[in-house]
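Re: your question about Acyltransferase 3

S., sorry for the slow reply, the queue was backed up all week. Below is exactly what I fed in.
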Amino acid sequence: MTGRAVAKLGYRPEIDGLRCLAVVPVLLFHAGLPPFSGGYVGVDVFFVISGYLIATILFEDLAAGRFSIARFYERRARRILPALFVVVLVCLPFGWSWMLVREFKELLQSVAATALSVSNVYFWLKSDYFAIEAELLPLLHSWSLGVEEQFYLLFPGLLLLLHGQPGRRQVGVLLAIGGASFAAGLWYISTHPMMVYYLLPFRAWELIAGAACAYLHHRHGRWPNGWLALAGAGLVFYAMLAYDAHTVFPGWAAVPPVLGSALIILYADPGALLGRVLALRPVVFVGLISYSLYLWHQPVLAFARHYLGHEPAAPVLVALLLLCVLLAVLTWHFVEKPFRRRGPLALVPGRKQVFAWSAASIVAVTGIGVAGDLRGGFPERLSDWEMRVYVESGWYSDCMYTRDAPAPAPPDAGCVVNPGQPRKAALFGDSVMSSLAPAFARSLAARGYEVHLLTHSHCTLNLDYHRASQNAQPCPEFARSMLGFIEAERFDLVVTAGHFAALLGGAPGQVVEAAGGAPVIDAGPVLQDLARQLNSLPSEVVLVLPHLTPETGVRVSTLKQLRVTGELRQTAVARADLADAADRVGAVLRDTITQDNIRFLDPTASLCDASHCRFVQQGMPLLSDTLHFTATGADLVATQLETLLATRDRPVPVDFAAPTPVVR
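Result:
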């Protein structure tokens, strides 16, 4: 996305026009506007352009005997860093004002990574490019700059080593590196897709494709061909229109946009149709400001989503993109152009000043990012109300076993509340049960129970099926072990909860068979398996039914409203607007589970009345996200449990000195 078409071959306006073809679909894709569902391939077009322009400059400098590493990096610093650091620094006050603690901490981490040209590595480790959360990352787009800047560090040295070698050897080395890069991407795309997406070793072939075009033009001159250029445009537009977020990319899918870009670069000419279109003054102008336009679009869109708390409407998105154009024009005129000037009257006149300014800026911006990370995102920004919500609206997971932290042989003394009592109760289930466990344990301990917390991520009482996740693979064995423990120890009460809406009401394929991992299309056998295990329990059983859930995380949306506006604008949601999967699955469970020793607890009663659900009560979230209960919410559901048990159970003295889980 950097450099400009200047070499002995002459300035090519169609290359700047190609930048326009690359950047506009990227902007529309990230804004969620039609028609470019595969607009992200515009970044691949930029990679080919960058490889071509940088290689053209290097080939010409080497041929003229004026090649200088210092001169090359001076030009890169003048071109890349000023606009980049302006955008990065502008992000900071908006992040301070509108972002939550974790969000601002991650923004500051990405600031440091961007300054050090390793943001592609950072985002590979931290995020999924196509996840909803990615839309809220203001500097996510800097990953492509990281790829290019790392390429700039290595490619000049490679060409210097190859200089003076026979042309075939030079081409052979470039093709070998490009081929190895492409092959490695194909090898790892199915197992490590984000690694292939973000990292230079798997993207280098795209920049080398541009460099190969430069080599051909440098050695053999240009040979315009309007038909081949149009074919290249067809390949690029095919990818932009036919691909979407579900396309396996890059891999083979990257070939059409890369090949198409190479054909345009090789054969487009202002004398032919495509060349004339790309050389139109408005198209070229968008190409000239494309670097600044690319820099601004992601922060503007991300912070708008942070401020609004939801996806902006189409007219708002169009207005935001027009704002990006305005910011890009101003940045191009007042930042890019002044810093690229040389000479005594220039803003940064000489090479030494450029390097000194660049080093100081990199150190300063990196320092800001590191300091913010060490300060944990500056939680002191929060008001007392925000701080209380932030501290108290997590969910308990201390005694929840996982695939990486498997359960020991029961009993686990650290997860037993009120030990030594004559009656025993087990809290069994997945993370939903874990979030309810402290409140349930206190209630049951007050009734004279020794309470065992038997929770595991993703696990219900099913023995023959589990959720379609690696994290759920241990669940059948975990359930078998705990059921054996409950039976052997003759537990008096089992309270079980789980994400039953996903288990029994999700899309086909979300559950698999425990033996072999075959996806389940019909939830009927899964329900029968669950019913079989519940009906086999000799103790009294309370089955916690699935509860209605909001579309967005309650804790985050509450904190976001407080952060942006200082007040809660909305705390009630119309019940009719919520998905009815929980109600449907709850009704099926009631109809299927018919044993007299099994009673049902519906936590929706603590969240909703007949018309509305209030997931925030008295300023505190009842759910930590969309599913798990906060301590406040769990206390309300625990009151339901007490009422349910009160019909046949009277409290007995309890040793309150016994350890009780505390929500952190």
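The radius of gyration is 30 Å. DSSP finds 25 helices and 13 strands in the chain.

Happy to talk it through on Thursday.
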